[in-house]
Amino acid sequence: AQSVSQHNHHVILSEAASLELGCNYSYGGTVNLFWYVQYPGQHLQLLLKYFSGDPLVKGIKGFEAEFIKSKFSFNLRKPSVQWSDTAEYFCAVIPFSGGYNKLIFGAGTRLAVHP
Amino acid sequence: GAGVSQSPSNKVTEKGKDVELRCDPISGHTALYWYRQRLGQGLEFLIYFQGNSAPDKSGLPSDRFSAERTGESVSTLTIQRTQQEDSAVYLCASSLGYPLNQPQHFGDGTRLSIL
Question: What CA–CA distance (Å, rounded) separates B74 from B78?
Answer without folding.
Answer: 13
